[in-house]
Specification:
With 204 residues, the protein is mainly α. Helices cover 56% and strands 8% of the residues.
């Protein structure tokens, strides 16, 4: 049995806890609502084995090339101040300066990842193009055009189209393959550990 001076804790999911004495409890209690933080769970519908295999391969490719895109974005950000000063120069000096910066970025990427970048498959190269756009806000075509010139950008665009790529297309996390890539990034790379945070695959 409770005594008049005893305290009790009133707790209900979604509401603030309250400690009240038995004597102060009335017929009606008003509790303040609270927000409950929780980890989101991504559920991906997989209907067939073919879709499962496709998604597994896409996931593997994204995991492989995402660090390259992140480093590219970081390098562009690191050189942003230098690039701003270069943009004030004359046309030819600006082109020369940007070419030097682009070569430094290429060298940094190759120095860190070496043959792994050179041995990328076509599908991985396509995903890298998408992810560079995601991380920098610029399409690969815009980056090549800015650093290498219109001729080189046009050449690489034609080459890319032969392999079913499009350097000009923008990353769109709401549709198509980009939507799946975004799903993978948010469910895997939003955590420090890749192994402990796999997306849930649901078979319909």
């Amino acid at each position: 049995m409770f005594k008049p001076g005893d305290l009790i804790t009133i707790s209900y999911i979604g509401y603030e806890k309250k400690k009240l004495s038995i004597s102060s409890i009335s017929d009606t209690l008003f509790l303040n609502t609270i927000s409950i933080p929780f980890e989101s769970i991504s559920v991906l519908g997989i209907k067939t084995n073919k879709q499962r295999k496709w998604f597994t391969k896409l996931e593997r490719d994204v995991i492989k090339v995402y660090p390259y895109a992140k480093m590219t974005a970081k390098l562009l950000d690191d050189y942003s101040t230098v690039l701003d000063s270069i943009n004030t120069l004359s046309y030819f000096k600006k082109r020369k300066g940007k070419k030097v910066i682009f070569q430094k970025i290429e060298s940094s990427l190759i120095s860190k990842y070496g043959s792994r970048i050179k041995k990328m498959k076509r599908s991985q190269g396509r995903i890298l193009i998408r992810l560079i756009d995601r991380e920098t806000g610029y399409t690969s075509y815009q980056i090549i055009k800015d650093f290498r010139g219109l001729f080189n950008a046009s050449f690489w665009q034609i080459t890319a189209r032969i392999f079913n790529h499009n350097l000009k297309s923008s990353y769109d996390p709401k549709t198509g393959e980009d939507k799946m890539i975004e799903h993978i990034i948010r469910t895997i790379f939003s955590k420090k550990s890749i192994k402990k945070n796999r997306p849930i695959l649901r078979e319909n």
